[in-house]
């Protein structure tokens, strides 16, 4: 039976997870302090928007995720906020405007290759937010949303470099495996068969599978050397 408090993500371990908690706490607080010193166009705009909390989860807990990369965070939040502002002004019915804002944000982020789940919350905030947010109009997408996102990403890059993590993430070289049996086209075909979207870049998946093949080959070679004659291979 899986322990109740076991980590959900593959490759995750507690020291790295605790560093992620510390990084999110420090950098989100610093983002708030930095943005509090910047003049905003409207006095009643929030210093920091709620979707940034979700952005911090991605940037610090899963920095290798394609959804957590700098362009995804900044572009996803800003573009989605712009879509939300447009929906608010063009659609008088709030429920419909909210739905169109989130759906339109997903489409815009997908087209611009900056898919970022908190962007949906940024779009929704532009529709159901305070009167100050509505009065700010298009400005809301850049201040505070854009300013918040840039500050969080900059602090995230600094923190991850201090803790020796790759951010912005760069896929590791696959390396060489003895007689590799998988190719990039095979991985693409398998993903197409599953009809699912996974939170991992194709390059990272290729590197992971290639290294797994190398370990499997080394294990089989070791088993062959140590197996006694007549012992069945398991």
From TrEMBL:
The chain crosses the membrane at residues 14-36, 43-62, 68-88, 95-115, 135-159. Keywords: Membrane, Transmembrane, Transmembrane helix. The keyword Transmembrane helix applies. InterPro entries: HPP, TM_HPP. Pfam families: TM_HPP (PF04982). Residues 14-168 form the HPP transmembrane region domain. It comes from the Bacteria. This is CBS domain-containing membrane protein. It comes from Sphingomonas endophytica.
């Amino acid at each position: 039976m899986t322990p109740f408090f076991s980590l959900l993500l593959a490759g995750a371990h507690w020291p790295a997870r605790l560093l992620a908690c510390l990084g999110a706490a420090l950098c989100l607080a610093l983002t708030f302090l930095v943005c509090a010193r910047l003049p905003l166009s409207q006095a009643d705009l929030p210093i920091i928007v709620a979707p940034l909390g979700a952005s911090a989860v991605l940037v610090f807990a899963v920095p290798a995720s394609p959804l957590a990369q700098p362009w995804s965070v900044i572009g996803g939040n800003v573009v989605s906020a712009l879509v939300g502002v447009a929906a608010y002004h063009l659609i008088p019915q709030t429920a419909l405007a909210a739905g169109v804002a989130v759906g339109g944000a997903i489409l815009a982020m997908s087209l611009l290759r900056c898919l970022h789940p908190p962007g949906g919350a940024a779009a929704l905030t532009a529709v159901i937010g305070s009167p100050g947010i509505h009065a700010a109009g298009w400005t809301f997408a850049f201040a505070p949303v854009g300013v918040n996102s840039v500050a969080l990403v900059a602090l995230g890059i600094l923190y991850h470099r201090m803790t020796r993590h790759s951010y912005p993430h760069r896929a590791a070289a696959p390396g060489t495996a003895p007689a590799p049996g998988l190719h990039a086209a095979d991985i693409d075909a398998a993903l197409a068969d599953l009809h699912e979207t996974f939170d991992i870049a194709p390059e990272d998946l290729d590197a992971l599978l290639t290294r797994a093949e190398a370990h499997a080959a080394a294990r089989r070679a070791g088993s062959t050397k140590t197996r006694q004659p007549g012992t069945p291979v398991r």
